[in-house]
Amino acid sequence: MGIAVKAAARAAGFVARKAAFAAGQGQAAEILADYLAQFGDAVLAGYMPMRTEIDPLAAMAAHPGVVGVPVIVGAGHALRFREWSPGCAMVAGEFGALVPEGGAWVVPQVVIVPLVAFDVRGYRLGYGGGFYDRTLEGLRARGPVVAVGFAFAGQEMADVPIDATDQRLDVIVTERGLRTF
Asked: What Gene Ontology terms describe what this protein does at the molecular function level (predicted)?
């Protein structure tokens, strides 16, 4: 898929996400927490929301097991996840995302994935760095992992442009409910 096609889709996705963010988050965090409850104390990875991303923090805080957040270790690399808990010391990481100042590195079994847009096939459009695609590919090579896209319903587009390296999500959770693939 051409870079220009993905760039145009990404631009449209950002516009849709900004509008959805302005409309409010509804019951999205509760729906996410209810979905995650089935995984018990499995190691969960979430993310620290930036700008107009939907906020998973309440669902992350409700999880009974270990929770990690992504740390970018370098361009072209998979993400690593550092243990997080509400109120832990945070510092600015790459691209301004907050990351825990210290803590154990964890390997998640369930990953909450932020996104710019998604489609009915379960594909997502991210920021273009390929971090989550590399990460999911690596985690899936090691064993089962569940990729949970978390987004506003308004971020859905007809067809996300994809390449051979794009990893499909297992479920999308929005303020309107969930969809499995």
From this structure: 5-formyltetrahydrofolate cyclo-ligase activity; ATP binding; metal ion binding
Q: Residues 47, 56: contact at Cβ < 8 Å? A: yes
Per-residue 3-state assignment (H helix, E strand, C coil) for 55-117: CCHHHHHHCCCCEEEEECCCCCCCCEEEEECCCCCEEECHHHCEEECCCCEECCCEEEECCCE
Q: Which letter does DSSP use for residue 127 in this model?
A: S
CA angle 6, 134, 158 (to 5 degrees): 35
Q: What is the pLDDT of residues 108-165, one digit of tens each?
A: 999 999 999 999 999 999 998 899 999 999 999 999 999 999 999 999 999 999 999 9
Select from 3.90.79.10, 3.90.1720.10, 3.30.70.240, 3.40.50.10420 the CATH code of 3-180.
3.40.50.10420
Q: How far apart are CA 102 and CA 125, in angstroms?
A: 30
Tokens at 145, concatenated: 């992992």
Domain boundaries, the chain: 3-180
What's the chain's Rg over C-alpha atoms?
Answer: 15
